[in-house]
């Protein structure tokens, strides 16, 4: 019975019209160690059709006697997804024999130099770097609790940690220009160092440039690089009420570059995380607002009437721009909201890619620059 079931799975994949253009397969198997094994696992597998079009198909693999096994298409330029219960994680079907360990959510490969091994190694290197950073940070915090001023050391350590991560992602792209390891490394670099990410695009193979994630990232990388920390702000103009353009038109430069630190919040009324930021934004506004600091909320991808309603409901009493739609997102390379950007008094971008629903993070960013009387 077991062999029959497993054969059916392999046959189903091989006969899929979507995957008919790919004759190479990757064996995937795994064994559950407890008695609560699911009836099946799902794999979202990627491949190219005979016409060269990317295809994605969900394969349901039965679990028999706690074990599952199947053959799926080999595709090294895209990530596949395996899921069971409430767990979900990614892997690369690189043509080797892959062994899934459900408990640890890890995937081993029979090829010690293969792409899946490189993918797992990239993740492991990140975790080790993060663990080392946490150990060092905790040691500094103990000294701070004892009364020492360790802020300078913390700042240097933070810079070193970020630089280490950037170098790790950069090297991963250099070493894997033709497979999905580059996808994940490029995604990580997109926010950490968009300038470096943009400089590495030319290394990618043509097929990798067609990768689902990479093709989304590429149009925003240049915008992110142009509006990275240290760059001067990019201005834009919004007609908030199309029926009254002369009285409702506003520019970002009406606020930014006018001699104050300006915290810009990109948000939308329909975004729950945006709404979660508002109480902390209120605290920050009340604490820092004055001759040195101000806040501007910009409603994006939102109907003006909904923005106006939310502004009233949430008690937003600082400057707001509505009906911005996608313009600020495109100019600043933002693909998800909420996002905050802190501008210097002259309009230089000081800090970006952070959120306000963590009160401590929001306050720590502002007080680095704004000194209260």
Task: Describe what this molecule looks like in 3D.
With 373 residues, the protein is an alpha+beta fold. The chain has three domains: 2-110, Immunoglobulin-like (Sandwich), CATH 2.60.40; 116-226, no CATH class; 237-367, Glutaredoxin, CATH 3.40.30.10. It has twelve helices and 15 strands. A five-stranded mixed β-sheet has the order 13-12-11-14-15. Strands 4-1-7-8 form a four-stranded mixed β-sheet. Helix 4 packs antiparallel against helix 5. It starts with a helix and ends in a 6-residue tail after the last helix. 33% of the residues are buried. The model is unreliable at 1-21 (pLDDT under 50).
Whole-angstrom Rg: 25 Å
The oligomeric state of the chains shown is single chain
- Overall pLDDT: 91
What's the CATH class of the largest domain, please? Alpha Beta
- Looking at this structure, what is the CATH superfamily of the largest domain? Glutaredoxin
Query: How many individual domains?
Result: 3
Order of helices and strands: HEEEEEEEEHHHHHHEHEEHEHEHEEH
Percent of residues in beta strands: 15-25%
- What's the helix count? 12
Stretches where pLDDT falls below 50 for ≥5 residues?
Answer: 1-21
Identify the CATH architecture of the largest domain.
Answer: 3-Layer(aba) Sandwich
Looking at the structure, the CATH topology of the largest domain is Glutaredoxin
N- to C-terminal distance: 78 Å
Largest sheet: 5 strands, mixed
Strand segment count: 15
User: Shape from CA axes?
Assistant: globular
Q: Which structural class matches the secondary elements?
A: alpha+beta
Strand order of the largest sheet: 13-12-11-14-15
């Amino acid at each position: 019975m077991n062999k029959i079931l497993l054969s059916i799975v392999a046959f189903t994949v091989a006969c899929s019209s979507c995957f008919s253009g790919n004759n190479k397969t990757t064996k995937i198997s795994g064994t559950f160690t407890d008695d609560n094994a699911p009836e099946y696992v799902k794999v979202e597998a990627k491949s190219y059709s005979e016409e060269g079009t990317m295809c994605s198909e969900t394969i349901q693999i039965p679990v028999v006697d706690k074990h599952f096994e199947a053959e799926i298409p080999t595709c090294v330029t895209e990530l596949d997804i395996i899921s069971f219960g409430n767990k979900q994680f990614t892997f690369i079907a690189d043509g080797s024999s892959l062994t899934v360990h459900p408990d640890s959510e890890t995937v081993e490969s029979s090829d010690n130099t293969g792409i899946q091994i490189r993918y797992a190694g990239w993740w492991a290197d990140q975790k080790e770097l993060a663990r080392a950073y946490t150990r060092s940070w905790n040691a500094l915090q103990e000294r701070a609790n004892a009364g020492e001023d360790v802020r300078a050391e913390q700042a240097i350590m933070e810079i070193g940690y970020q630089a280490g991560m950037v170098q790790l992602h950069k090297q991963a792209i250099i070493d894997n220009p033709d497979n999905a390891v580059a996808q994940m490394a490029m995604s990580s670099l997109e926010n950490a160092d968009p300038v470096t990410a943009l400089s590495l695009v030319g290394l990618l193979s043509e097929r990798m440039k067609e990768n689902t994630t990479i093709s989304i990232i590429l149009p925003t990388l240049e915008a992110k690089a142009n509006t990275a920390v240290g760059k001067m702000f990019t201005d834009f103009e919004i007609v908030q009420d199309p029926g009254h353009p002369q009285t409702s038109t506003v520019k970002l430069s009406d606020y930014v570059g006018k001699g104050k630190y300006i915290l810009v919040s990109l948000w939308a009324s329909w975004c729950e995380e945006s709404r979660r930021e508002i109480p902390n934004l209120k605290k920050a506004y009340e604490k820092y607002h004055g001759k040195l600091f101000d806040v501007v909320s910009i409603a994006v991808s939102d109907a003006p009437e909904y923005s106006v309603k939310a502004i009233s409901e949430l008690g937003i009493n600082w400057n707001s721009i509505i009906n911005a739609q996608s313009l600020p997102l495109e100019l600043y390379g933002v693909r998800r909201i909420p996002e905050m950007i802190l501008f210097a008094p002259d309009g230089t971008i000081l800090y970006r890619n952070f959120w306000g629903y963590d009160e401590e993070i929001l306050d720590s960013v502002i007080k680095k620059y704004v000194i209260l009387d």
